[in-house]
Design a protein that fits this description.
The chain is an all-alpha fold. The protein is built from twelve helices and two strands; from the N terminus they run αααααββααααααα. It starts with a helix and ends with a helix. It is a multi-pass membrane protein.
Length: 264
């Protein structure tokens, strides 16, 4: 956070490394960031495809939608990546409107999950609060090991922290706004994720707590499950264009400093 205010330029870790330890480490950092954005974008696109298939199978159980997520080609994931590129090619202003709109919808869905989830909670489902460690699907789940595994999975959601830093060069008054943005990302992600997990665990028994949609349906609120699944399908893709935008800023920073050319 401190570095993003001292070096308010595009590139995040690349920019910090460039100004502190030299060009070669900076280029290595840039390639690592590229790998991060590529993997996170592909992962989100793939997860979105799975969510679409899951939702369609619930709504139309008599039909098969496996063709959307083939083992050798993820058509739905490729579609969302292509649409993300189109959104960014329309320009930063258009992309910003799209991202802001979808983010507001996403926040509304999360708030709905939390409020409706608390209304549907059964306190008995929260006992034991930390279940004993058990082998589940060939892996150890629950207990201390389960907490560590869950925390490692949740860490994926903090990629936005770095993407905020990567866009520091586009920020007005970065010394003031960057710390606010970074702290907001971290705190909101932490609080909202924890509350969503809490209400899901309270709605159904922990062995049945697969997703918020399943939680509401297990409680008998099929309409709420439909709202949640639809919200996930509509809002999850917003992560992909944000990653693409951060990658574009990183490439811009590399081009401006011509680090790669100097090293070749």
């Amino acid at each position: 956070m401190e570095l993003s205010t001292c070096v308010p330029s595009s590139g995040s870790t690349y920019a910090y490394a460039y100004y502190t330890i030299g060009k070669l480490p900076a280029v290595i950092a840039a390639w690592l960031l590229t790998l991060e954005y590529a993997v996170s974008g592909a992962g989100v696109a793939r997860s979105w495809g799975d969510k679409v298939e899951e939702w369609l199978m619930v709504e139309y159980p008599d039909k098969s939608f496996r063709w959307l997520n083939l083992p050798f080609a993820n058509l739905s994931g490729g579609l969302i990546q292509f649409l993300s590129m189109v959104v960014l090619l329309m320009g930063v202003r258009s992309g910003k409107v799209f991202v802001h709109t979808v983010t507001e919808i996403k926040m509304s869905v999360v708030v709905f999950i939390i409020i409706a989830g608390f209304a549907a909670m059964n306190p008995d489902n929260l006992s034991p609060f930390i279940p004993k460690s058990t082998e589940l699907n060939g892996m150890m789940a629950f207990g201390t090991q389960g907490i560590i595994t869950g925390a490692s999975h949740a860490l994926f959601g903090y990629a936005g922290f770095d993407e905020v830093c990567c866009l520091a060069g586009e920020t007005k008054n970065p010394k003031k706004n960057m710390p606010i943005a970074i702290m907001a990302v971290v705190l909101c992600t932490t609080v909202l994720s924890a509350l969503c997990s809490l209400v899901l665990a309270g709605m159904v028994a922990f062995l049945e707590a697969a997703s918020s949609g399943d939680g509401f349906e297990g409680h008998g609120w099929k309409w709420a499950g439909t709202v949640v699944r639809l919200g996930e399908v509509v809002t999850m893709p917003v992560v992909a264009p944000i990653g693409f935008l951060a990658q574009s800023c990183l490439n811009y920073a590399l081009a401006c400093r011509a680090s790669a050319a100097h090293l070749s």
